[in-house]
C-alpha cells in the first residue's frame, strides 16, 4: 500500500516561509559551548571562594571563642589562687587607727590599748589609715578574711565614716575614742575614752539601731535643711511644707545636751522631722516660734531648683531626694551607760 501523504495546512506553510529556521554552523555551536563552559567555571570558582571565606571566618570565630574561654579560665584560676593565698585570721577583730594617731603623741596610749586588748583576748589585725589606704577597701578585705568585727580608734569624724561603711557591708562596729575631735557618738553609746573602752569591747553588748539612707547612701545622725522652702512628701500620704526656716530630720541625736531637741529613738522604725519656722526679726517681736514634729519612714523631696542638705554636717546639693529608713541596719558594740 502506498504511504499516505499528510496535508500541511496553508497557514503553517505561510509561517514557515515567513520565518525560516537558521541553520547553525559547527563553529558557532562550539563557540557557544566554550562560552557557557567558561561562565559555569567562573560561577564554580566564585562559589568555592565564598565557601573558603566562610570557612576562614568560622575558623577565626572559633579561635576567638577559644581565646576568650582560655582567658576566662585563667582569670578564674588567678582569683582562686588569690583566695587561697588570703589568710583566714583566727581573731574575729580588726582595729583601724585614724591617720592623726600617727607619731609620738599617741604612741604610749596605743601601746597600752594593744596590751590591754591582748590581756582580754580580743586582739586582732591592726590597720593605720593614710592617704593611700581607703577605709572601705580595708574593711572589705578584712571581711573576706573572716573578720566580722571592726573596731575604729579615733574621733567622731572617722567613726561617722566607719558607721556608713559598716551599714553597707553588714559588719559589727566597735569604737575606741582617742584623739581627733569630739566624742559625741561614743558618749551616746556609753563608751569611755582610751583604754577604758577595751572593757566595753570585751563585754560585747551588741545593740541594733536603724540607719537612714539618702539616695541610697547611709547617714548616721540627721539631715538639716536651712532657710529653704521645699515640700516634704511623707510616706506617700501627706505633704509637709517647710516655712523657710529650719527642717531637721533625725535618726540619732548626738547632741544630747541640747534640750530643745525632742527625744529621738533610733530603734522605733521612724524618722523624726522637726520643723522650725523662720524667726521674726525686730525688737518688739518676742513671740515664740512654734515647732512642729512629724514622723515618717520615707520622705521624698522634689524641687525644680537645686537645694542644699547638710548630711551629718556635710553640705550636699540635690534636686530630687529619696530618704528611707533601714530597720536595725547597724550593729554596734555599746556600753551599759548608753543614752540611746
What's this model, at a glance?
The protein has helices at 10-18, 26-85, 107-120, 135-144, 156-169, 184-188, 197-203; strands at residues 93-97, 125-128, 149-154, 172-177, 205-214, 217-219, 222-226, 231-234, 238-241, 246-250, 271-276, 292-296, 298-311, 314-334.
Question: Key terms for this structure?
Answer:
Rossmann fold; Tumour Suppressor Smad4; 14-stranded mixed β-sheet; 7 helices; 340 residues; alpha+beta
What does this 3D model show about the protein?
There is one protein chain. Strand 1 (93-97), helix 3 (107-120) and strand 2 form a beta-alpha-beta unit. The protein has seven helices and 14 strands. 35% of the residues lie in helices and 29% in strands. With 340 residues, the chain is α+β, with helices and mostly antiparallel strands. The model has no long low-confidence stretch (mean pLDDT 82). The chain has helices at 10-18, 26-85, 107-120, 135-144, 156-169, 184-188, 197-203, and strands at residues 93-97, 125-128, 149-154, 172-177, 205-214, 217-219, 222-226, 231-234, 238-241, 246-250, 271-276, 292-296, 298-311, 314-334. Among the domains are: 93-203, Probable inorganic polyphosphate/atp-NAD kinase, domain 1 (Rossmann fold); 217-328, Tumour Suppressor Smad4. Strands 1, 2, 3, 4, 5, 6, 7, 8, 9, 10, 11, 12, 13 and 14 form a 14-stranded mixed sheet that branches.
Amino acid at each position: 500500500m502506498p504511504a499516505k501523504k499528510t496535508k500541511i495546512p496553508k497557514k503553517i506553510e505561510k509561517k514557515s516561509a515567513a520565518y525560516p529556521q537558521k541553520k547553525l554552523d559547527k563553529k558557532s555551536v562550539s563557540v557557544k559551548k566554550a562560552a557557557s563552559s567558561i561562565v559555569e567555571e567562573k560561577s564554580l570558582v566564585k562559589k568555592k571562594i565564598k565557601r573558603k571565606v566562610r570557612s576562614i571566618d568560622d575558623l577565626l570565630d572559633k579561635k576567638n571563642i577559644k581565646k576568650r574561654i582560655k582567658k576566662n579560665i585563667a582569670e578564674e584560676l588567678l582569683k582562686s589562687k588569690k583566695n587561697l593565698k588570703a589568710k583566714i585570721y583566727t581573731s574575729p577583730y580588726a582595729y583601724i587607727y585614724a591617720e592623726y594617731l600617727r607619731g609620738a603623741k599617741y604612741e604610749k596610749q596605743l601601746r597600752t590599748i594593744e596590751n590591754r586588748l591582748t590581756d582580754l583576748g580580743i586582739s586582732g589585725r591592726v590597720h593605720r589609715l593614710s592617704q593611700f589606704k581607703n577605709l572601705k577597701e580595708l574593711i572589705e578585705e578584712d571581711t573576706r578574711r573572716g573578720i566580722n568585727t571592726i573596731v575604729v580608734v579615733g574621733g567622731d569624724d572617722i567613726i561617722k565614716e566607719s558607721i556608713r561603711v559598716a551599714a553597707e557591708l553588714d559588719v559589727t562596729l566597735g569604737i575606741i575614742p582617742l584623739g581627733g575631735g569630739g566624742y559625741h557618738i561614743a558618749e551616746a553609746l556609753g563608751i569611755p575614752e582610751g583604754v577604758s573602752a577595751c572593757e566595753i569591747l570585751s563585754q560585747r553588748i551588741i545593740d541594733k539601731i536603724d540607719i537612714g539612707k539618702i539616695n541610697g547612701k547611709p547617714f548616721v545622725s540627721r539631715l538639716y535643711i536651712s532657710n529653704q522652702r521645699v515640700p516634704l512628701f511623707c510616706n506617700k500620704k501627706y505633704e509637709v511644707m517647710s516655712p523657710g526656716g529650719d527642717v531637721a530630720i533625725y535618726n540619732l541625736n548626738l547632741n544630747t545636751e541640747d534640750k530643745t531637741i525632742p527625744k529621738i529613738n533610733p530603734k522605733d522604725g521612724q524618722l523624726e522631722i522637726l520643723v522650725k519656722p523662720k524667726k521674726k526679726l525686730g525688737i518688739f517681736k518676742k513671740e515664740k516660734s512654734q515647732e512642729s514634729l512629724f514622723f515618717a519612714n520615707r520622705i521624698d523631696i522634689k524641687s525644680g531648683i537645686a537645694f542644699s542638705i547638710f548630711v551629718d554636717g556635710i553640705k550636699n546639693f540635690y534636686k530630687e531626694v529619696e530618704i528611707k529608713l533601714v530597720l536595725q541596719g547597724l550593729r554596734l558594740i555599746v556600753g551599759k551607760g548608753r543614752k540611746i
